[in-house]
Amino acid sequence: VSATLVSAPAQAAEPPPPTYRVSILPFQANIVDMSGAGHIAGINYPDGQPFVWTPGGGVVILPTPAGTTNPGVVGVNSSGWVAGSLVVSGATLGVVWQPTATGYTMVTLPRPTGLGPALPVAIDDAGRIVGSAGAPGQFWSYPFLWTAEGGTQNLADLGYPTDLPTSMSPTSGWVALPTRAYRLGDPSSVIPLPQAPPNFGYAYTHAIADDGDRFVELQRPSSMYAARLFRLDAQTSTWVDLWGADVYSWFHGVADVNALGDMVGFIRYSALVSWAPGDPVVGLQTRLAAGYTGVPTDGYAPVVLSGAAGISDTREVLATASMGNSGRMVRLTPTGPCTAATCLRVTALTVGGSQSSTCTTGATYTASGTATVRDQAGRAVAKATVRVILVGGNSTVVTTVTTDRKGVAKVAGKLGTCEGTVTAFIDDVTAPGAELDRTVGILGRSALPAVR
Description:
The chain is an all-beta fold.
């Protein structure tokens, strides 16, 4: 099968790419995923417990049996179902957590007949789970499908390839294999990858969209390691070059694809996005709301987006961010210029502190600063409520303060000593009849505390 190689179009996405505001999420996590509806699921840090988070419901710790070790989460769907695995008394189990009227219940995925534990790889919005199950006493594994109605079935017995799934589309039932794809419900739908572009080989499919487009990593056989990411258009069999240049690093990947076909991922320590129908990847950093001087990201100067883990159907993005020497999970939400009669702007932000040169477990110091709020005409805004998050290496303090008649709010909070940089992060500013304009202003500032 032949295919055409083309360069990616220049930001042709429909709807247009958004500009983002940044919110620090109230948890730290090691493994995370975001559903099309915006649920976030993963393993929290440092407790190592599976959880799910929603904007309205907050964090819910998912139930596990006594003696559970090594829990893992592979995905969450738009109904809040979470697929994963865990070990109980030495036995590895594939599981799905399902929401109930009072919380969550855990369902163990039955083993396919004659096979070992059914370990999930992906879950879609219909509640279908695909993954792999090993053959006892053999190195070989088989693909399986689990549904609430049909239980666990060996996909090979249903006429599908024995290749193990790498991912599944959000809603349409497309299953990606390393070099092939098929649609659930139709064993005859198997589609191999077409011939790779010249000088490329060793294909591996990372993800698949609802329309069957595949995100495929190809390598140059002539190089020890040089990779390139392509989007294979399902309708035209066209290879669309997303990276535009070879990447000489093992640390890269595709993290998630939403129902629109947008993809988020990372290369080294940079978060990337490619909008449907196949724009080249761009740094998510460039999509942050512009700051006081109108330069993208200078409003969030301390925030460096180092990775992306998920994207919703409304184009919210789950990302990891560095702030000084602190790492946090953040949620990027599409935003735009203020449209209210009164637009609030944080025109100045300071932060600092003084701490002892001796590090003592449990010791704290006071970080402090100020936030100045004005309206679009430059007038001071009194009695505005400012929600500020102070972030240290391992400490997070959320505080709400009120501006005085000069529009200045004083901020203070206790952080751990010897945690390095302190960051003041403006989470929100509110006042009656007014709206915070996140495209103009200063929304983050970092500093090293003085040492006495």
